[in-house]
Write a structure and sequence with these properties.
By secondary structure, this protein is an alpha+beta fold. The chain is built from nine helices and 16 strands. Bound molecules: ligand EPS. Its EC number is 4.2.3.5.
Length: 356
């Protein structure tokens, strides 16, 4: 499976091409609505107030409601591209923003609303992820879903899947939502931004997905998740907590009834174990903020930068569907690769190696 996206935040449209999806999957424009709505701006006062319709047009790869096996091209036309900070940021680099590195790489850039580096691009990742989620669910019964696991200093005190979809944060603890609302209101008024952690769980993943050395399942997940805007860290299972653990604590003991724990996050040696796959990402605080910061302009002169446009005080709030999409795309890719190499592995008679 391969996925690429195109388009800029303030260009006429954004889109993606998903190549390698098997034929026969039912797919219609309305199938994209729910996840695109979950990720969209302007759905609460805690996100950017840009209003996009995010209506998907299927340009290719689907005939009479079924995927044909040819590349699937999806398009979303941008409809609300006005930008308050265009003139300001065309010449100066926002500290902490890709403005700086894009300029030094290409020597020119499209600064309209962040151009290609805008989180607008993640819309198409979510659209592509809808295809992967559908295929995984229908073909393998795999379910991929996530939640906001930390917002600045706040962590959930309870966990309930039903709560996750009932608040604008994807927060699993309904009793804390009011606290989050007022915390975010205060932050927004201060003109600052904050980081967040998003977790994604993939349930019902069969054992055997992933490559043993190059293309490890956890390696591919890390690369895919790290490629999301603003992501600065990825953990699989216990992740960095493993640093202070002992082997006797971290190993997941196995009984005839199954594993007794899941510190590994469902992956051993780059291959799925049949346990739930758990990935976690750290998103940095948004760099486009109202608090002046020192920087330079394209001529290297010192400037102060304040960013006034329609920006998110916490990109992590909208990142749950994006992270789910990237996990689903990696899992679908690995499922197809596994099928290509191992085919019907059940037909292979298990062999205990002979003693040398
Ligand atoms: C973003 C800045 C804002 C957000 C945008 C992400 O847009 P603009 O490009 O107009 O400045 O509204 O998010 C979206 C448009 C979206 O659909 O997610 C940024 O700097 O990343």
């Amino acid at each position: 499976l391969s996925v690429t996206t195109f388009g800029e935040s303030h260009g006429p449209a954004i889109g993606c091409v998903v190549d390698g999806c098997p034929p026969g999957l039912a797919l219609a424009p309305e199938d994209f609505r729910n996840d695109l709505e979950r990720r969209a701006t302007g759905r609460s006062r805690h996100t950017s107030q840009r209003r996009e319709t995010d209506e998907v047009e299927i340009l290719s790869g689907v005939y009479e409601g079924l995927t044909t096996g040819t590349p699937i091209a999806l398009l979303i036309r941008n409809t609300d591209q006005r930008s308050k900070d265009y003139a300001d940021i065309a010449e100066r680099f926002r500290p902490g923003h890709a403005d700086y590195s894009y300029w030094h790489k290409y020597g020119l850039r499209d600064p309209r609303g962040g151009g290609r580096s805008s989180a607008r691009e993640t819309t198409m990742r979510v659209a592509a992820g809808v295809i992967a989620k559908r295929w995984l669910q229908q073909r393998h019964g795999v379910r991929v879903r996530g939640w906001l696991a930390q917002l600045g200093p706040l962590t959930p005190a309870a966990f309930d899947w039903d709560a996750v979809e009932q608040n604008p944060f994807f927060w699993p603890d309904a009793a804390m939502v009011a606290e989050l609302e007022s915390w975010m209101d205060k932050l927004r008024k201060s003109g600052d931004s904050v980081g967040a952690r998003v977790n994604v769980l993939a349930e019902n993943v069969p054992p055997g997905w992933g490559e043993p050395i190059y293309g490890k399942l956890d390696g591919e997940l890390a690369a895919a998740l790290m490629s999301i805007n603003a992501v600065k860290g990825v953990e699989i299972g216990d992740g960095f907590a493993a640093v202070s653990q002992r082997g006797s604590e971290h190993r997941d003991e196995i009984t005839p009834q199954g594993f007794l724990s899941n510190h590994a996050g469902g992956v051993l040696g780059g291959i799925s174990t049949g346990q739930d796959v758990l990935a976690s990402i750290a998103l940095k605080p948004t760099s486009s903020i109202l608090i002046p910061g020192r920087s330079v302009n394209v001529r290297g002169e010192p400037v102060d930068v304040v960013t006034k446009g329609r920006h998110d005080p916490c990109v992590g709030i909208r990142a749950t569907p994006i992270a789910e999409a990237m996990v689903a795309l990696v899992l679908m890719d690995q499922a197809l690769r596994h099928r290509a190499q191992c085919g019907d592995v059940a037909a292979v008679t298990p062999r205990i190696p002979a003693k040398p």
